[in-house]
User: Which sequence fits this backbone?
Protein backbone atom coordinates (compact mmCIF):
# COMPACT_ATOMS: atom_id res chain seq x y z
CA UNK A 1 0.00 0.00 0.00
CA UNK A 2 1.38 3.41 -0.97
CA UNK A 3 -0.54 5.89 1.17
CA UNK A 4 0.03 5.50 4.91
CA UNK A 5 -3.17 4.29 6.57
CA UNK A 6 -5.48 6.74 8.23
CA UNK A 7 -6.27 4.18 10.87
CA UNK A 8 -4.07 1.23 11.72
CA UNK A 9 -5.46 -1.34 14.12
CA UNK A 10 -3.21 -4.15 15.38
CA UNK A 11 -4.12 -7.08 17.63
CA UNK A 12 -7.10 -5.24 19.05
CA UNK A 13 -8.72 -6.98 21.98
CA UNK A 14 -11.72 -5.85 23.96
CA UNK A 15 -12.75 -7.37 27.27
CA UNK A 16 -15.80 -6.67 29.40
CA UNK A 17 -15.37 -7.25 33.11
CA UNK A 18 -18.34 -7.82 35.34
CA UNK A 19 -17.50 -8.65 38.90
CA UNK A 20 -14.90 -11.38 38.76
CA UNK A 21 -15.79 -12.66 35.30
CA UNK A 22 -14.20 -11.26 32.17
CA UNK A 23 -15.53 -11.81 28.65
CA UNK A 24 -13.23 -11.17 25.73
CA UNK A 25 -15.46 -10.03 22.86
CA UNK A 26 -12.79 -8.90 20.39
CA UNK A 27 -10.03 -11.48 20.04
CA UNK A 28 -7.07 -9.60 18.59
CA UNK A 29 -8.06 -8.22 15.19
CA UNK A 30 -5.92 -6.16 12.79
CA UNK A 31 -6.97 -3.96 9.89
CA UNK A 32 -6.15 -0.67 8.13
CA UNK A 33 -8.37 2.05 6.75
CA UNK A 34 -6.79 4.26 4.07
CA UNK A 35 -7.69 7.95 3.76
CA UNK A 36 -11.01 8.27 1.95
CA UNK A 37 -11.58 4.51 1.87
CA UNK A 38 -14.93 2.89 2.65
CA UNK A 39 -14.71 -0.35 4.61
CA UNK A 40 -17.54 -2.58 5.73
CA UNK A 41 -17.76 -4.78 8.81
CA UNK A 42 -20.40 -7.49 8.58
CA UNK A 43 -21.41 -10.00 11.20
CA UNK A 44 -24.21 -11.25 13.40
CA UNK A 45 -25.17 -9.79 16.76
CA UNK A 46 -22.50 -10.45 19.33
CA UNK A 47 -19.67 -10.83 16.81
CA UNK A 48 -17.83 -7.81 18.22
CA UNK A 49 -18.31 -5.39 15.33
CA UNK A 50 -19.91 -2.64 17.41
CA UNK A 51 -17.45 -3.10 20.27
CA UNK A 52 -14.60 -2.67 17.76
CA UNK A 53 -16.05 0.71 16.77
CA UNK A 54 -16.53 1.73 20.38
CA UNK A 55 -12.99 0.66 21.22
CA UNK A 56 -11.66 2.95 18.48
CA UNK A 57 -13.78 5.84 19.76
CA UNK A 58 -12.99 4.78 23.33
CA UNK A 59 -16.68 4.78 24.16
CA UNK A 60 -17.81 1.91 26.36
CA UNK A 61 -21.51 1.06 26.52
CA UNK A 62 -23.01 2.52 29.68
CA UNK A 63 -22.21 0.76 32.92
CA UNK A 64 -19.75 -1.73 31.44
CA UNK A 65 -16.03 -1.51 32.08
CA UNK A 66 -14.34 -2.18 28.75
CA UNK A 67 -10.63 -2.99 28.64
CA UNK A 68 -8.93 -2.48 25.31
CA UNK A 69 -5.63 -4.11 24.34
CA UNK A 70 -3.45 -3.89 21.26
CA UNK A 71 -2.76 -0.83 19.19
CA UNK A 72 -4.98 1.73 17.45
CA UNK A 73 -3.03 4.34 15.48
CA UNK A 74 -4.69 7.36 13.91
CA UNK A 75 -2.29 9.02 11.42
CA UNK A 76 0.54 7.30 13.26
CA UNK A 77 -0.59 8.50 16.69
CA UNK A 78 -1.34 5.81 19.27
CA UNK A 79 -4.85 6.27 20.66
CA UNK A 80 -5.02 3.53 23.28
CA UNK A 81 -2.84 5.39 25.80
CA UNK A 82 -3.85 8.92 24.80
CA UNK A 83 -5.00 11.05 27.77
CA UNK A 84 -8.74 11.68 27.77
CA UNK A 85 -8.56 15.45 26.94
CA UNK A 86 -6.50 14.70 23.82
CA UNK A 87 -8.84 11.85 22.93
CA UNK A 88 -11.81 14.20 23.20
CA UNK A 89 -10.13 16.29 20.54
CA UNK A 90 -9.88 13.33 18.18
CA UNK A 91 -13.37 12.09 18.95
CA UNK A 92 -15.91 14.08 16.99
CA UNK A 93 -13.38 16.25 15.22
CA UNK A 94 -11.21 13.62 13.47
CA UNK A 95 -13.24 10.46 13.96
CA UNK A 96 -17.00 10.78 14.28
CA UNK A 97 -19.68 8.18 14.84
CA UNK A 98 -23.33 7.63 13.93
CA UNK A 99 -25.35 5.07 15.88
CA UNK A 100 -28.29 2.86 15.06
CA UNK A 101 -30.98 4.49 17.12
CA UNK A 102 -31.84 8.03 16.01
CA UNK A 103 -34.66 8.17 18.55
CA UNK A 104 -32.54 8.04 21.69
CA UNK A 105 -29.43 9.91 20.52
CA UNK A 106 -30.95 13.41 20.60
CA UNK A 107 -31.97 15.49 23.60
CA UNK A 108 -35.78 15.62 23.50
CA UNK A 109 -36.15 18.98 25.27
CA UNK A 110 -33.69 21.00 23.15
CA UNK A 111 -34.39 22.23 19.64
CA UNK A 112 -32.42 20.54 16.88
CA UNK A 113 -30.67 23.82 16.07
CA UNK A 114 -29.67 24.46 19.68
CA UNK A 115 -28.09 20.99 19.92
CA UNK A 116 -25.98 21.52 16.83
CA UNK A 117 -25.10 25.15 17.75
CA UNK A 118 -24.00 23.95 21.15
CA UNK A 119 -21.65 21.39 19.71
CA UNK A 120 -20.22 23.78 17.11
CA UNK A 121 -19.54 26.40 19.73
CA UNK A 122 -17.91 23.92 22.06
CA UNK A 123 -15.87 22.02 19.46
CA UNK A 124 -15.30 24.69 16.85
CA UNK A 125 -15.24 27.77 19.06
CA UNK A 126 -17.74 29.58 16.85
CA UNK A 127 -19.75 32.62 17.94
CA UNK A 128 -23.49 32.27 18.48
CA UNK A 129 -24.34 33.79 15.08
CA UNK A 130 -21.64 31.91 13.20
CA UNK A 131 -22.74 28.64 14.82
CA UNK A 132 -26.35 29.17 13.75
CA UNK A 133 -25.27 29.97 10.17
CA UNK A 134 -23.20 26.79 10.09
CA UNK A 135 -26.08 24.75 11.64
CA UNK A 136 -28.44 25.85 8.88
CA UNK A 137 -25.77 25.07 6.29
CA UNK A 138 -25.29 21.57 7.77
CA UNK A 139 -29.01 20.80 7.91
CA UNK A 140 -29.20 21.83 4.25
CA UNK A 141 -26.19 19.63 3.45
CA UNK A 142 -27.95 16.51 4.78
CA UNK A 143 -31.08 17.29 2.78
CA UNK A 144 -33.45 18.82 5.33
CA UNK A 145 -35.86 21.18 3.61
CA UNK A 146 -36.31 24.71 5.03
CA UNK A 147 -33.31 24.25 7.37
CA UNK A 148 -33.63 27.72 8.90
CA UNK A 149 -37.19 26.94 10.02
CA UNK A 150 -36.63 23.31 10.98
CA UNK A 151 -33.68 24.26 13.21
CA UNK A 152 -36.21 25.59 15.74
CA UNK A 153 -38.12 22.29 15.89
CA UNK A 154 -37.72 19.67 18.60
CA UNK A 155 -36.64 16.07 17.86
CA UNK A 156 -40.19 14.68 18.21
CA UNK A 157 -41.26 16.86 15.28
CA UNK A 158 -38.79 14.97 13.05
CA UNK A 159 -39.37 11.52 11.55
CA UNK A 160 -36.88 8.70 12.17
CA UNK A 161 -35.13 9.31 8.86
CA UNK A 162 -34.94 13.07 9.49
CA UNK A 163 -33.45 12.45 12.94
CA UNK A 164 -30.79 10.19 11.43
CA UNK A 165 -30.01 13.00 8.96
CA UNK A 166 -29.59 15.38 11.91
CA UNK A 167 -27.21 12.95 13.63
CA UNK A 168 -25.22 12.61 10.43
CA UNK A 169 -25.11 16.42 10.19
CA UNK A 170 -23.73 16.56 13.73
CA UNK A 171 -21.19 13.81 12.96
CA UNK A 172 -19.83 15.51 9.83
CA UNK A 173 -19.99 19.07 11.26
CA UNK A 174 -16.29 19.15 12.13
CA UNK A 175 -15.31 17.55 8.81
CA UNK A 176 -13.90 14.33 10.27
CA UNK A 177 -11.44 12.16 8.33
CA UNK A 178 -13.29 9.02 9.35
CA UNK A 179 -16.99 8.45 9.89
CA UNK A 180 -17.93 5.30 11.76
CA UNK A 181 -21.55 4.34 11.04
CA UNK A 182 -22.85 1.54 13.27
CA UNK A 183 -26.04 0.07 11.74
CA UNK A 184 -27.10 3.57 10.66
CA UNK A 185 -30.21 2.40 8.79
CA UNK A 186 -31.37 -0.64 10.76
CA UNK A 187 -34.16 1.20 12.57
CA UNK A 188 -35.47 2.82 9.37
CA UNK A 189 -37.96 1.94 6.64
CA UNK A 190 -36.49 0.61 3.38
CA UNK A 191 -37.21 3.72 1.31
CA UNK A 192 -35.71 5.92 4.05
CA UNK A 193 -32.78 3.51 4.33
CA UNK A 194 -32.02 4.01 0.64
CA UNK A 195 -32.12 7.79 1.13
CA UNK A 196 -29.68 7.65 4.07
CA UNK A 197 -27.30 5.38 2.13
CA UNK A 198 -27.37 7.83 -0.78
CA UNK A 199 -26.67 10.66 1.67
CA UNK A 200 -23.66 8.83 3.16
CA UNK A 201 -22.25 8.19 -0.33
CA UNK A 202 -22.69 11.85 -1.33
CA UNK A 203 -21.11 13.19 1.87
CA UNK A 204 -18.19 10.82 1.51
CA UNK A 205 -17.62 12.11 -2.03
CA UNK A 206 -18.06 15.79 -1.11
CA UNK A 207 -16.08 15.76 2.13
CA UNK A 208 -13.50 13.12 1.11
CA UNK A 209 -13.87 11.24 4.39
CA UNK A 210 -13.23 7.56 5.03
CA UNK A 211 -16.21 5.42 6.05
CA UNK A 212 -16.34 2.46 8.40
CA UNK A 213 -19.78 0.94 7.88
CA UNK A 214 -20.94 -1.67 10.37
CA UNK A 215 -23.99 -3.77 9.56
CA UNK A 216 -25.47 -7.25 9.72
CA UNK A 217 -27.01 -6.76 6.28
CA UNK A 218 -25.07 -7.80 3.16
CA UNK A 219 -27.57 -5.85 1.06
CA UNK A 220 -26.68 -2.59 2.81
CA UNK A 221 -22.95 -3.14 2.49
CA UNK A 222 -23.06 -4.17 -1.21
CA UNK A 223 -23.19 -0.76 -2.87
CA UNK A 224 -21.39 1.22 -0.20
CA UNK A 225 -17.85 -0.01 0.42
CA UNK A 226 -14.69 -1.13 -1.39
CA UNK A 227 -13.59 -3.71 1.15
CA UNK A 228 -15.42 -6.00 3.55
CA UNK A 229 -14.35 -7.65 6.79
CA UNK A 230 -16.56 -10.52 7.95
CA UNK A 231 -16.56 -10.93 11.72
CA UNK A 232 -17.50 -13.87 13.87
CA UNK A 233 -17.08 -14.34 17.61
CA UNK A 234 -14.61 -11.51 17.94
CA UNK A 235 -12.42 -12.48 14.99
CA UNK A 236 -12.19 -11.30 11.41
CA UNK A 237 -12.75 -14.54 9.51
CA UNK A 238 -12.53 -13.15 5.99
CA UNK A 239 -11.37 -9.94 4.34
CA UNK A 240 -11.64 -9.05 0.69
CA UNK A 241 -12.65 -6.65 -2.04
CA UNK A 242 -16.44 -6.24 -1.98
CA UNK A 243 -17.06 -7.90 -5.34
CA UNK A 244 -14.85 -10.88 -4.47
CA UNK A 245 -16.57 -11.41 -1.11
CA UNK A 246 -19.98 -11.49 -2.81
CA UNK A 247 -19.05 -13.61 -5.82
CA UNK A 248 -16.34 -15.89 -4.46
CA UNK A 249 -16.37 -16.05 -0.65
CA UNK A 250 -13.69 -18.41 0.66
CA UNK A 251 -14.81 -18.84 4.27
CA UNK A 252 -17.80 -21.15 4.80
CA UNK A 253 -19.21 -18.74 7.37
CA UNK A 254 -19.31 -15.94 4.77
CA UNK A 255 -21.09 -18.26 2.34
CA UNK A 256 -23.61 -19.25 5.01
CA UNK A 257 -24.35 -15.61 5.83
CA UNK A 258 -24.74 -14.72 2.14
CA UNK A 259 -27.01 -17.69 1.50
CA UNK A 260 -29.32 -16.60 4.31
CA UNK A 261 -29.98 -13.13 2.84
CA UNK A 262 -33.54 -13.07 1.51
CA UNK A 263 -33.65 -12.07 -2.15
CA UNK A 264 -36.24 -10.49 -4.40
CA UNK A 265 -35.29 -12.39 -7.54
CA UNK A 266 -36.06 -16.05 -8.24
CA UNK A 267 -32.45 -17.16 -8.32
CA UNK A 268 -30.73 -17.52 -5.00
CA UNK A 269 -33.84 -18.38 -3.02
CA UNK A 270 -33.88 -21.71 -1.32
CA UNK B 1 -64.64 -22.85 -3.90
CA UNK B 2 -62.95 -23.28 -0.53
CA UNK B 3 -64.67 -21.79 2.53
CA UNK B 4 -63.20 -18.51 3.76
CA UNK B 5 -61.16 -18.50 6.93
CA UNK B 6 -61.11 -14.77 7.40
CA UNK B 7 -63.19 -12.10 5.76
CA UNK B 8 -62.33 -8.43 6.37
CA UNK B 9 -64.72 -5.88 4.92
CA UNK B 10 -64.30 -2.09 4.82
CA UNK B 11 -62.35 -2.11 8.08
CA UNK B 12 -61.62 1.37 9.44
CA UNK B 13 -59.72 2.38 12.55
CA UNK B 14 -59.74 6.02 13.59
CA UNK B 15 -57.79 7.36 16.53
CA UNK B 16 -59.73 10.27 18.03
CA UNK B 17 -58.37 13.80 17.93
CA UNK B 18 -55.97 14.77 20.69
CA UNK B 19 -54.75 18.19 21.79
CA UNK B 20 -56.70 19.87 19.02
CA UNK B 21 -55.07 17.77 16.30
CA UNK B 22 -57.36 16.17 13.73
CA UNK B 23 -58.28 12.50 14.23
CA UNK B 24 -55.93 9.97 12.63
CA UNK B 25 -57.43 7.61 10.07
CA UNK B 26 -54.97 4.77 10.65
CA UNK B 27 -56.87 2.16 8.63
CA UNK B 28 -59.32 3.06 5.86
CA UNK B 29 -61.68 0.70 4.02
CA UNK B 30 -59.43 -2.34 4.22
CA UNK B 31 -61.00 -5.46 2.68
CA UNK B 32 -59.50 -8.86 1.99
CA UNK B 33 -60.16 -12.58 2.38
CA UNK B 34 -57.94 -15.38 3.55
CA UNK B 35 -58.26 -19.07 2.78
CA UNK B 36 -57.29 -21.93 5.10
CA UNK B 37 -53.61 -22.79 4.74
CA UNK B 38 -52.80 -19.53 3.01
CA UNK B 39 -50.18 -16.89 3.86
CA UNK B 40 -51.06 -13.30 3.12
CA UNK B 41 -48.16 -10.86 3.36
CA UNK B 42 -49.22 -7.42 4.60
CA UNK B 43 -46.47 -5.04 3.60
CA UNK B 44 -45.94 -1.37 4.29
CA UNK B 45 -43.73 1.15 6.02
CA UNK B 46 -44.04 2.44 9.57
CA UNK B 47 -47.28 4.36 9.93
CA UNK B 48 -48.95 2.60 6.99
CA UNK B 49 -51.51 0.96 9.30
CA UNK B 50 -50.38 -2.64 8.90
CA UNK B 51 -49.95 -3.36 12.62
CA UNK B 52 -53.21 -1.56 13.46
CA UNK B 53 -54.99 -3.72 10.85
CA UNK B 54 -53.64 -6.86 12.53
CA UNK B 55 -54.70 -5.65 15.97
CA UNK B 56 -58.17 -4.67 14.71
CA UNK B 57 -58.64 -8.18 13.26
CA UNK B 58 -57.68 -9.70 16.62
CA UNK B 59 -60.14 -7.29 18.30
CA UNK B 60 -57.27 -5.89 20.36
CA UNK B 61 -58.07 -2.51 18.83
CA UNK B 62 -61.66 -1.31 18.39
CA UNK B 63 -62.53 -0.61 14.77
CA UNK B 64 -64.62 2.41 13.86
CA UNK B 65 -66.35 0.75 10.91
CA UNK B 66 -66.35 -2.46 8.92
CA UNK B 67 -66.59 -6.12 9.83
CA UNK B 68 -64.25 -9.02 10.53
CA UNK B 69 -65.54 -12.58 10.16
CA UNK B 70 -63.56 -15.59 11.31
CA UNK B 71 -64.71 -19.08 10.27
CA UNK B 72 -68.01 -17.57 9.14
CA UNK B 73 -68.77 -15.81 12.45
CA UNK B 74 -68.71 -12.05 12.68
CA UNK B 75 -66.42 -11.18 15.58
CA UNK B 76 -66.57 -7.38 15.40
CA UNK B 77 -69.63 -7.16 17.68
CA UNK B 78 -68.58 -9.87 20.13
CA UNK B 79 -67.39 -9.24 23.66
CA UNK B 80 -66.47 -11.07 26.83
CA UNK B 81 -66.68 -14.86 26.82
CA UNK B 82 -67.92 -15.16 23.23
CA UNK B 83 -64.91 -13.21 21.96
CA UNK B 84 -62.54 -15.19 24.17
CA UNK B 85 -63.94 -18.39 22.70
CA UNK B 86 -63.17 -17.11 19.18
CA UNK B 87 -59.69 -15.95 20.20
CA UNK B 88 -58.43 -19.50 20.40
CA UNK B 89 -58.80 -19.64 16.63
CA UNK B 90 -56.55 -16.62 16.10
CA UNK B 91 -53.22 -15.99 17.77
CA UNK B 92 -50.51 -13.36 17.62
CA UNK B 93 -46.73 -13.55 17.24
CA UNK B 94 -45.02 -10.23 17.82
CA UNK B 95 -41.75 -8.74 16.73
CA UNK B 96 -39.71 -8.65 19.87
CA UNK B 97 -39.13 -12.04 21.50
CA UNK B 98 -37.31 -10.26 24.33
CA UNK B 99 -40.35 -8.35 25.58
CA UNK B 100 -43.17 -10.73 24.68
CA UNK B 101 -42.16 -13.46 27.15
CA UNK B 102 -42.61 -12.95 30.89
CA UNK B 103 -39.09 -12.88 32.38
CA UNK B 104 -40.15 -14.46 35.70
CA UNK B 105 -42.08 -17.38 34.20
CA UNK B 106 -40.49 -20.64 33.15
CA UNK B 107 -41.09 -21.85 29.61
CA UNK B 108 -43.35 -24.58 31.05
CA UNK B 109 -45.58 -21.96 32.70
CA UNK B 110 -45.53 -19.72 29.62
CA UNK B 111 -46.76 -22.58 27.43
CA UNK B 112 -49.26 -23.87 30.00
CA UNK B 113 -50.98 -20.51 30.43
CA UNK B 114 -53.01 -20.48 27.18
CA UNK B 115 -53.92 -24.14 27.75
CA UNK B 116 -55.37 -23.26 31.17
CA UNK B 117 -57.12 -20.08 29.97
CA UNK B 118 -58.82 -21.84 27.06
CA UNK B 119 -59.23 -25.17 28.93
CA UNK B 120 -58.08 -26.88 25.75
CA UNK B 121 -56.59 -29.95 27.48
CA UNK B 122 -57.34 -31.51 30.86
CA UNK B 123 -55.04 -30.27 33.61
CA UNK B 124 -53.24 -33.61 33.92
CA UNK B 125 -52.29 -33.63 30.26
CA UNK B 126 -50.74 -30.15 30.27
CA UNK B 127 -47.11 -31.30 30.75
CA UNK B 128 -47.52 -33.73 27.88
CA UNK B 129 -48.95 -31.01 25.60
CA UNK B 130 -46.14 -28.59 26.60
CA UNK B 131 -43.52 -31.19 25.64
CA UNK B 132 -45.33 -31.78 22.36
CA UNK B 133 -45.28 -28.02 21.63
CA UNK B 134 -41.56 -27.82 22.33
CA UNK B 135 -40.91 -30.66 19.89
CA UNK B 136 -43.16 -29.00 17.33
CA UNK B 137 -40.99 -25.85 17.22
CA UNK B 138 -37.72 -27.78 17.27
CA UNK B 139 -36.80 -27.25 20.91
CA UNK B 140 -35.73 -29.76 23.54
CA UNK B 141 -38.67 -30.52 25.95
CA UNK B 142 -36.09 -31.03 28.71
CA UNK B 143 -35.52 -27.25 28.70
CA UNK B 144 -39.03 -26.25 29.86
CA UNK B 145 -37.91 -25.42 33.38
CA UNK B 146 -35.63 -22.66 32.09
CA UNK B 147 -36.39 -18.93 31.95
CA UNK B 148 -36.61 -16.82 28.77
CA UNK B 149 -33.28 -15.03 29.37
CA UNK B 150 -31.45 -18.35 29.09
CA UNK B 151 -32.38 -18.59 25.41
CA UNK B 152 -31.16 -16.79 22.29
CA UNK B 153 -33.42 -14.50 20.26
CA UNK B 154 -34.24 -17.21 17.75
CA UNK B 155 -35.05 -19.76 20.47
CA UNK B 156 -37.25 -17.21 22.23
CA UNK B 157 -39.15 -16.59 19.01
CA UNK B 158 -39.68 -20.38 18.77
CA UNK B 159 -41.16 -20.31 22.28
CA UNK B 160 -43.44 -17.40 21.28
CA UNK B 161 -44.60 -19.43 18.26
CA UNK B 162 -45.15 -22.52 20.45
CA UNK B 163 -47.29 -20.45 22.80
CA UNK B 164 -49.36 -19.15 19.88
CA UNK B 165 -49.88 -22.73 18.63
CA UNK B 166 -50.81 -24.13 22.07
CA UNK B 167 -54.55 -23.73 21.48
CA UNK B 168 -54.53 -25.07 17.89
CA UNK B 169 -55.41 -21.81 16.14
CA UNK B 170 -56.44 -21.62 12.48
CA UNK B 171 -54.94 -18.17 11.96
CA UNK B 172 -51.67 -16.81 13.29
CA UNK B 173 -51.04 -13.11 12.85
CA UNK B 174 -47.27 -12.65 12.71
CA UNK B 175 -46.32 -9.01 13.21
CA UNK B 176 -42.71 -8.55 12.03
CA UNK B 177 -41.82 -11.98 13.46
CA UNK B 178 -38.23 -12.01 12.19
CA UNK B 179 -37.16 -8.39 11.88
CA UNK B 180 -35.39 -8.37 15.26
CA UNK B 181 -33.32 -11.44 14.36
CA UNK B 182 -30.03 -12.06 12.54
CA UNK B 183 -30.33 -13.16 8.91
CA UNK B 184 -29.43 -16.80 9.54
CA UNK B 185 -31.91 -16.99 12.43
CA UNK B 186 -34.50 -15.29 10.20
CA UNK B 187 -34.09 -18.04 7.62
CA UNK B 188 -34.51 -20.72 10.31
CA UNK B 189 -37.72 -19.16 11.67
CA UNK B 190 -39.08 -18.81 8.12
CA UNK B 191 -38.35 -22.52 7.57
CA UNK B 192 -40.11 -23.34 10.84
CA UNK B 193 -43.19 -21.31 9.81
CA UNK B 194 -43.24 -23.18 6.47
CA UNK B 195 -43.05 -26.62 8.07
CA UNK B 196 -45.72 -25.76 10.67
CA UNK B 197 -48.01 -24.59 7.90
CA UNK B 198 -47.51 -27.83 5.99
CA UNK B 199 -48.06 -29.93 9.13
CA UNK B 200 -50.99 -28.06 10.70
CA UNK B 201 -52.65 -26.30 7.75
CA UNK B 202 -52.20 -22.90 9.43
CA UNK B 203 -52.92 -19.56 7.81
CA UNK B 204 -50.58 -16.68 8.44
CA UNK B 205 -51.22 -13.00 8.14
CA UNK B 206 -47.56 -12.05 7.82
CA UNK B 207 -47.05 -8.37 8.60
CA UNK B 208 -43.63 -7.05 7.59
CA UNK B 209 -41.83 -4.08 6.09
CA UNK B 210 -39.22 -6.25 4.37
CA UNK B 211 -40.44 -7.30 0.93
CA UNK B 212 -37.60 -9.79 0.55
CA UNK B 213 -38.66 -11.72 3.67
CA UNK B 214 -42.31 -11.63 2.62
CA UNK B 215 -41.38 -13.09 -0.75
CA UNK B 216 -40.08 -16.20 1.02
CA UNK B 217 -43.36 -16.86 2.86
CA UNK B 218 -46.39 -15.28 1.20
CA UNK B 219 -48.79 -16.77 -1.35
CA UNK B 220 -50.49 -13.42 -1.77
CA UNK B 221 -49.34 -9.92 -0.90
CA UNK B 222 -51.25 -6.79 0.15
CA UNK B 223 -49.34 -3.51 0.08
CA UNK B 224 -50.48 -0.79 2.49
CA UNK B 225 -49.86 2.92 2.19
CA UNK B 226 -51.50 5.68 4.22
CA UNK B 227 -53.99 3.33 5.87
CA UNK B 228 -55.24 1.75 2.64
CA UNK B 229 -54.37 -1.35 0.68
CA UNK B 230 -53.00 0.03 -2.59
CA UNK B 231 -52.17 -3.27 -4.28
CA UNK B 232 -53.31 -6.85 -3.70
CA UNK B 233 -52.46 -9.95 -5.67
CA UNK B 234 -50.57 -13.22 -6.00
CA UNK B 235 -47.02 -12.87 -4.70
CA UNK B 236 -45.41 -13.97 -7.96
CA UNK B 237 -47.48 -11.42 -9.86
CA UNK B 238 -46.72 -8.54 -7.47
CA UNK B 239 -42.97 -9.19 -7.47
CA UNK B 240 -42.81 -9.63 -11.24
CA UNK B 241 -45.29 -6.93 -12.28
CA UNK B 242 -45.80 -4.40 -9.51
CA UNK B 243 -48.61 -2.13 -10.68
CA UNK B 244 -48.70 0.63 -8.08
CA UNK B 245 -45.89 3.22 -8.06
CA UNK B 246 -45.57 2.79 -4.30
CA UNK B 247 -45.04 -0.96 -4.62
CA UNK B 248 -42.40 -0.27 -7.24
CA UNK B 249 -40.66 2.23 -4.94
CA UNK B 250 -40.70 -0.29 -2.08
CA UNK B 251 -39.27 -3.05 -4.27
CA UNK B 252 -36.65 -0.72 -5.66
CA UNK B 253 -35.50 0.29 -2.18
CA UNK B 254 -34.79 -3.24 -0.88
CA UNK B 255 -31.00 -3.53 -0.63
CA UNK B 256 -29.83 -6.59 -2.55
CA UNK B 257 -26.58 -8.48 -1.98
CA UNK B 258 -25.32 -7.66 -5.47
CA UNK B 259 -22.58 -4.99 -5.40
CA UNK B 260 -22.80 -3.93 -9.08
CA UNK B 261 -26.58 -3.59 -9.04
CA UNK B 262 -26.63 -1.92 -5.65
CA UNK B 263 -23.96 0.63 -6.70
CA UNK B 264 -25.88 1.47 -9.86
CA UNK B 265 -29.11 1.84 -7.90
CA UNK B 266 -27.61 4.13 -5.27
CA UNK B 267 -26.10 6.30 -8.00
CA UNK B 268 -29.58 7.07 -9.33
CA UNK B 269 -31.78 9.71 -7.75
CA UNK B 270 -34.20 8.45 -5.12
CA UNK B 271 -37.64 7.61 -6.53
CA UNK B 272 -40.59 9.71 -5.44
CA UNK B 273 -42.29 8.13 -2.43
CA UNK B 274 -44.70 10.88 -1.59
CA UNK B 275 -48.03 10.02 -3.15
CA UNK B 276 -51.25 11.92 -3.10
CA UNK B 277 -54.86 11.27 -3.90
CA UNK B 278 -55.66 12.34 -7.49
CA UNK B 279 -57.16 15.78 -7.37
CA UNK B 280 -59.29 15.53 -10.49
CA UNK B 281 -62.61 13.72 -10.72
CA UNK B 282 -61.08 10.96 -12.83
CA UNK B 283 -58.63 8.59 -11.19
CA UNK B 284 -55.21 7.51 -12.39
CA UNK B 285 -56.90 5.03 -14.72
CA UNK B 286 -59.21 7.62 -16.22
CA UNK B 287 -62.35 6.41 -14.44
CA UNK B 288 -64.67 8.82 -12.68
CA UNK B 289 -65.63 6.61 -9.71
CA UNK B 290 -68.00 9.19 -8.26
CA UNK B 291 -70.00 9.22 -11.49
CA UNK B 292 -69.91 5.47 -12.20
CA UNK B 293 -70.32 4.42 -8.56
CA UNK B 294 -67.59 1.78 -8.82
CA UNK B 295 -65.00 0.93 -6.16
CA UNK B 296 -61.63 2.59 -6.48
CA UNK B 297 -59.97 -0.63 -7.52
CA UNK B 298 -58.80 -1.86 -10.90
CA UNK B 299 -58.09 -5.45 -11.82
CA UNK B 300 -54.84 -5.26 -13.82
CA UNK B 301 -54.56 -9.05 -14.19
CA UNK B 302 -56.68 -11.95 -12.90
CA UNK B 303 -56.81 -11.62 -9.09
CA UNK B 304 -54.33 -8.75 -9.14
CA UNK B 305 -55.89 -5.50 -7.97
CA UNK B 306 -54.52 -2.01 -7.72
CA UNK B 307 -56.03 1.03 -6.06
CA UNK B 308 -56.06 4.33 -7.89
CA UNK B 309 -55.58 6.17 -4.61
CA UNK B 310 -52.20 7.69 -3.83
CA UNK B 311 -50.73 8.06 -7.26
CA UNK B 312 -48.22 10.82 -7.86
CA UNK B 313 -49.76 14.00 -9.22
CA UNK B 314 -49.98 14.08 -12.99
CA UNK B 315 -49.18 10.40 -13.51
CA UNK B 316 -51.53 8.24 -15.44
CA UNK B 317 -51.81 4.54 -15.96
CA UNK B 318 -48.90 3.14 -17.90
CA UNK B 319 -50.75 0.01 -18.81
Assistant:
Amino acid sequence: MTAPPLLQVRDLTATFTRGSSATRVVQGISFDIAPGEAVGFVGESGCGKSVTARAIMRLAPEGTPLTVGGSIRYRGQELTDLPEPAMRDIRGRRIAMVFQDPMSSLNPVMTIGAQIDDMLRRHGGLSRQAARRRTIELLGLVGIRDPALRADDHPHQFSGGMRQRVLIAIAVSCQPDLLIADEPTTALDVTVQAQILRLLLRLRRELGMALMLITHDFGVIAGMVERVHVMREGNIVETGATDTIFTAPTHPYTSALLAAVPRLSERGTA
Amino acid sequence: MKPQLLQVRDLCVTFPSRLGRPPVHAVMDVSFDMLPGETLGLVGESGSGKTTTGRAILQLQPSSAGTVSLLGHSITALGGGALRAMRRHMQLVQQNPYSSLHPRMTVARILAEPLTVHRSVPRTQIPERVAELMNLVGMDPAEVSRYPHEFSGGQRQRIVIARALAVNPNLVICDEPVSALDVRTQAQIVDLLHSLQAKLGLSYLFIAHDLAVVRAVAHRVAVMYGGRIVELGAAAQIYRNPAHPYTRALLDAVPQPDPARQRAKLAEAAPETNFSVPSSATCAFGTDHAATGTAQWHEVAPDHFVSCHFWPHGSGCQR
Q: What stands out?
A: Chain B has a mean pLDDT of 89.
